[in-house]
Each structure stands twice: as structure tokens, then as C-alpha cells.
Amino acid sequence: MTDPRTTATRRPDAEVGQIREPARTAWWRAARLWAVVVCFIGVGIARSARLGIPFRDPHGAYLVGRVALTSAIFLGLVALDGLVRTDHPRSVRRGWSTVRARWTWGRVALAWTALLAYHATYFTYHNLKSWDVFNAPRDAMLTAWDHWLFLGHSPAVLLHDLLGQQAAAWVLMVWYEAFATLVVVAFPAAVVLAPRMRDAYAGIAAFVWVWILGTATYYAIPSLGPFHAEPGDFSGLPHLPVQDTQADYLAQRDHLLAHPHAPDAFAQVSAFASLHVAVTATILGLAWWHRMRRTTVVLAVFLAGTMVATVYLGWHFAVDLPAGLAIAALAWVLGPLTVGVRRRPPRAAGRRSARAGDDAR
């Protein structure tokens, strides 16, 4: 009798209750996702035509460079996933056999169809965000809302008084900046590590919607943020790199307004709603979707810290935070609905498929 420990991978999907999804159904999900993305790109094209400004990708920061980075992360995660799915004793050859069995050409094509949909959305989002500077900011209204909610006080000043303005400032800056790393890893992981490709599409669709809905709120209430509207509230903080970034963002905005047709004119500043909160909450939703309890708890703590940091450092008004949470919640309603996924993966099936493999599509 063959020792099951000597096989490179576990038994086929049918033996653990997994049902392969027909290729036509899988590609129909992809088509539905891309239908939303194409509509969003159409909005971007219309805005571009109205302003007479083409789409831009400064230094490849939002498309070319991002796709290259995603490719590297994708390969690393595939290798890690293959190692985890390979039974003991593990070796490079056995791990490669596992990767080849799981990552068929059809699965690779579906995975990159989803990832490119994300990148097309993200690229369009950044261009629309840049062009939002041509709308009059309404920071005074958001400031008034914050003061009303906090009984005449600035929420940032209250946090400074509560936490102090020295060590807490540095800790919260590092916490806030960790967001960028989390995001660039999270969405490829949503595709590579998903037990079923349908769940990968549900996650990517949620990410697509969070950028679309965030863009809508930027245009609904254009704003720059408390660091610009109420700079005196942050005068007691030590000099931090984040303040240099804020100054750079304002300079970029001024340059775009003064020279909109300059090839390097591109802006990155908008406040309402907080997409740091929205995207982090969407990643938390991804862990919840896959029934990863411990990861969900860790991400909930990270989300709470991000909400504190974004107000403390002056990036966002307090009212931007619940708006960001609402965007994430809506993204997790619209995402699975867009790609026709009705339920989260079953808990038992999810544990088995983590080692056994899943539907090839």
C-alpha cells in the first residue's frame, strides 16, 4: 500500500467534497467583473475628454510599476502556497509538482484576468482622483461637522491631548505608512491563496468596488484634509516625514492647477472618504470571507489603529472614517453580487482545500 505521506499533493478535489466549476461559469464571472471595470474606465475617459488631460502614469507608479510588483508578489505567493500544500517530506521537486497541478494554464489566465481588472481600476481611480482638484474643496463643511460631533472640539487635538505629541506621533506614523505594504500584498493574496477561484473573484470584485465608490465620494465632497484646513491643530507635532508628504501633495495640486497640461502634472490629495479606512476594512472583510478568525482579529486591531492615526496625523476628518467603513461594507455587498458568488466557502471545505487543492477554475 502506498504511504499517503509520500505523495506530493493530497487527493483530488472530488474526494474531499470539492466540485469543479465549469470553465464557462468561471469566465462568465470574469466577464461580469470586467463589465464593471470597463464602465469605470469609461467614466475616466469622459472626464479626461472634458478636461482635455490624458491619462497619466507618472514614473509607472500606478500601472506599469504596479503590475511588475504584482507579478513578483504573485510568483512568491504561488511558491509559498505550493510549499504549504505539499506533504512531508518537502522538496523543491515535490513543491514544483504541487504548483503545476494547482496552477493550470486556465487557472493562471483567470487569476491574471482578475488582477488586471484590479490594476485597470486602480489606474483609473488615481487619474480621476488627480482631476478631483479642479472641484472646489469643501473642507470648511467637514471641519464644521467634526466640531459639531465633538462638541466644539477638534478630534485631532483631543487625540493629541490624550496620546501626547511625541512618541505617539512616530508610532502612529509608522502604523499609517504600513497600509501601503498591506495593500500591495493583500490583493494578489486574495487570488493566489483563495481555496476556490470564485472566492478570488469575490475578493477582487470587492477591491474594485472600494476604489470606484471611493472615487464617487471624492467627487461628492471634494476636500484636502485637516492638515490643510486647520494647520494650527498639528503645529505641536514633531517634524515627521508625513508632513513632507503632505507638503508635496499640496505642491502637486498647485502645479496641476497652474499647468494642467504639463506632462508631469498629477495630484494625489483627497480626504472624503478615508480610503485608508475603506481599503483596510475591505481587507479585513477578505479575512472574514475566508473564515480566518485570528487574521480577522489582527486586522480589526490594525484598522482601529489606522483610524486613530489618520485623524491624529491630519490626513482625514473624523467624519471620513465612518464613510470609509460604509464604503467597505457596500463593496462587500456589491463585489460578490457582481461576480455571482452567493456564499462564503464552507468552513470544513475551506480547511480541507487549504491542503488538498480546489476547483481548477
Automatic annotation (TrEMBL):
Signal peptide segment: none
InterPro entries associated with the record: Aur1/Ipt1 (IPR026841)
The organism of origin for this protein: Nocardioides soli
TM stretches of this protein: 30-49, 61-84, 105-125, 167-193, 200-221, 265-289, 296-315, 321-341
Domain Inositolphosphotransferase Aur1/Ipt1: 142-334
Name this protein carries in UniProt: Membrane-associated phospholipid phosphatase
Transmembrane recorded as keyword: yes
Pfam family, one: PAP2_3
One cellular component (GO) term of this entry: membrane
Gene3D superfamilies: Phosphatidic acid phosphatase type 2/haloperoxidase
Keywords, in A-Z order: Membrane, Transmembrane, Transmembrane helix
Higher taxonomy: Bacteria, Bacillati, Actinomycetota, Actinomycetes, Propionibacteriales
